[in-house]
Amino acid sequence: MEQATTDDAMFPFDNSYARLPERFFARLPPTPVAEPSLIRLNERLAHELGLSPERLTTPAGIAVLAGNQVPAGAEPLAMAYAGFQFGSWVPQLGDGRAILLGELIGRDGVRRDVQLKGSGRTPFSRSGDGRAALGPVLREYIISEAMAALGIPSTRSLAAVATGERIRRETYLPGAVLTRVAQSHIRVGTFQFFAGRRDEEGVRVLADHVIARHYPEAAESDNPVLALLGAVMERQAALIARWQLVGFIHGVMNTDNMSIAGETIDYGPCAFMDSYHPDTVYSSIDRRGRYAYGNQPSIAQWNLAGLANALLPLIADDQHAAVELATELIQSFSTRFAQHYQPGLLRKLGLASAQDGDLKLAQDLLQRMAENRADFTLTFRRLGALVDSTSKDDASVRGLFEDPAAFDEWLVRWRERIRAESRTPAEIRSDMRSVNPAFIPRNHGVEEAIEAAVERGDFEPFEELVEVLAYPYEDQPTRARYAAPPRPEQVVRETFCGT
Ligand code: AMP
Ligand code: MG
User: Fold this and answer.
1) What Rg do the C-alpha atoms of the chain give, in angstroms?
2) What is the phi/psi pair of residue 248, to 5°?
3) Which pLDDT tens digits describe the chain residue by residue (499 residues)?
4) Is 256 a known active-site residue?
5) Is the CB–ligand 1 distance for residue 286 below 6 Å?
6) Whose CA is nearest to atom 7 of ligand 1?
7) Contact 261/209 with Cβ under 8 angstroms?
8) What is the secondary structure of 245-262 as a DSSP string?
9) Which ligand 1 atom sits nearest the alpha carbon of residue 122?
10) Would you list the domain boundaries of the chain?
């Protein structure tokens, strides 16, 4: 019988990172687990990647997704990186519990990493066990897929597998492995790893790799590395604007958790806001609110300044000139962010024609929402219905405000402004519905789904939540309860990374 060829490999790997110098990573296979069982395979994503869901769900497929079998063509490795964690420099982090199996090119022609997370110890594990608990794996699955469905760049979840092992955290918890797919797992902290060691050659090789892989247009520029920095910044500005517009709080925006490709990555204690307030923080480890909702744009800029710093030797031979060029670029972050955020915010309000005072009108609403603890998601979603309705429907929105009169005043002005739009009310309403989701992964819903799985081995709530969140802009009347804000006793105030 003929040997298996690449044509019928389970994963048609085409690896590029594994070709980089050996000091970029440590080569090692995942550590097998006791008793793998599939929790969920993301069939739609498997199709997009050109993979066979049938094969991935066979015992041989599940063995690969658990790390018990290294598939043909894989070149497993743990990537090296560094990072600023809560502002403090850590010269070496790296994949302490993840293994990059390889890269494949999807049906869309885009190259993507396939990584196992929770796959055992690596040389970068420090004191960690290299494993992931079931709860955080389900959390990442739910939220990363919800982000993708919202249209926000994100790493994806291809599969979750239970390991049949218990891992030690504060108590013993069931273990799991997540198969994560990303345009790449290269981080701001990957550049900082080499820069921190004064390994200029390493920074150069990485920059070349990143330009070829993610930003080929930068290669055409007179100053490709400066163009790279600008392009990374542009994607981050667009990304953070999208986060702000749906109320997503990442929670741990360390430079090692910021993707060079501009995808949301490393879902830990992240959360979507229920009631709106710019100071909102959920992460239990973010004691001082460094990564609060309202700080996310300025933290992104701070992280990009760190990237600029790592790239300085490649920007110009004269370091004074390099600093000047980089500083000017990084200072333009706020403007670039606003170019994404402001039109996005106005669109959430049904305002497409951009008139003087529109931004003030929007900010006034946000302030009233903050003062009245109004639900962020529902305020915008329901507002769409008020474009052409009688005042009896107003209750659906005004009831979200502690003092409904605060909304009434604003509504009068908004309705007046809306009349100046050239579109019909139906058009405005439908456009608002396409940017204001009905369904977000609400903290209490996520916690309920995780608790059912972890405490009772019941994965139904997880499955159902994933299905609902796949269509966030549709009404899904039979699943309306998933759109509801938490009742007072359901409010989640703190989220944990659980690593
Ligand atoms: P995170 O907060 O998950 O982004 O991880 C920060 C750093 O800690 C990275 O270098 C991770 O690889 C490492 N890490 C997190 N959890 C573990 C674990 N259970 N075992 C080994 N390393 C870990
Ligand atoms: Mg991380």
Assistant:
1) 23
2) -90, 135
3) 444 444 579 999 999 999 999 999 999 999 999 999 999 999 999 999 999 999 999 999 999 999 999 999 999 999 999 999 999 999 999 999 999 999 999 999 999 999 999 999 999 999 999 999 999 999 999 999 999 999 999 999 999 999 999 999 999 999 999 999 999 999 999 999 999 999 999 999 999 999 999 999 999 999 999 999 999 999 999 999 999 999 999 999 999 999 999 999 999 999 999 999 999 999 999 999 999 999 999 999 999 999 999 999 999 999 999 999 999 999 999 999 999 999 999 999 999 988 999 999 999 999 999 999 999 999 999 999 999 877 678 999 999 999 999 999 999 999 999 999 999 999 999 999 999 999 999 999 999 999 999 999 999 999 999 999 999 999 999 999 999 999 999 999 888 876 6
4) yes
5) no
6) 93
7) no
8) HHTEE-S---GGGSBTT-
9) 21
10) 4-184, 189-342
Distance from the alpha carbon of residue 266 to the mean position of ligand 2, in angstroms: 5
334 CA to centre of own chain: 21
Q: Which atom of ligand 1 approaches the CA of 266 most closely? A: 4
Mutate to test the pocket of ligand 1, among 155, 167, 499 (most ligand atoms within 8 A of CB): 499
Q: Which residue minimizes the CA distance to atom 12 of ligand 1?
A: 96
The three-class DSSP label of residue 164 is strand
Calculate helix-pair angle for 224-246, 296-315, nearest 10 degrees.
170
Span from the CA of 219 to the centroid of ligand 2 (angstroms): 29
Half-sphere exposure for 288 (CA within 13 Å, toward CB): 3
Identify the CA nearest to 257 among candidates 90, 42, 137, 141: 90
Q: Check if 94 has its Cβ closer than 6 Å to any atom of ligand 1.
A: yes
Say what the pTM is. Answer: 0.97
Active-site position among 256, 274, 375, 431: 256
Cα–Cα dist 458/154, whole Å: 27
| Ligand 1 atom having least distance to the Cα of 131 | 19
**Helix H or strand E encompassing 177:** strand 172-182
Q: Which residue has the tokens 């690596």?
A: 122
Is residue 33 a contact partner of residue 165, using CB atoms and an 8 Å limit? yes
Distance separating alpha carbons of residues 97 and 259, to the nearest angstrom = 18
Instruction: Please tell me if the CB atom of residue 152 comes closer than 6 angstroms to any atom of ligand 1.
Output: no
The torsion angles phi and psi of 386, rounded to 5 degrees, stand at: -90, 0
